[in-house]
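Final report, closing paragraph on structural work. Over the funding period we assembled a curated collection of sequence-structure pairs, and we close with a single example.
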Amino acid sequence: MITLSPIKRRIVYVTIFELLGIVFATLVLMVLSGGEVQESLPVAVIVSTAAVVWNFIYNTLFEAWETRSQIAERTLKIRSIHAMGFEGGLFLFCLPVYMLWYGVGIWEAIVMESALLLFFLVYTFVFTLLFDQVFSLPHLAHK
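Its predicted structure, as stored:
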């Protein structure tokens, strides 16, 4: 296993995750839109960039809310609220992007984002599982 410092591990994780995510999202968007790579790749990059920026903003705000609310533990309920809030915000950003870029209506944009959301749910699980097999968690490195 490869052991990295926490910050390096996060950077490697995000970099590999997003690069592969862009490739896969491009393919999914090509299928959904019936378009070509040059049409779907920019959208995948826009959505990926938005997801990274939104992740940083959302987690900063969420953690501030947890602190203000004196939440000491991330229960299943808190984790569910966190996930729904993140995905909901990203969903709202992506809809107009799909509508403008592909010239589709709201229903088609909802279908596109729903398909990508389901894909990324599975992708995130599998990617994280494999990533943890290659890159050890820093706090477990010396055990």
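The mean pLDDT is 91. The chain has four helices and two strands. We thank the funder for supporting this effort.
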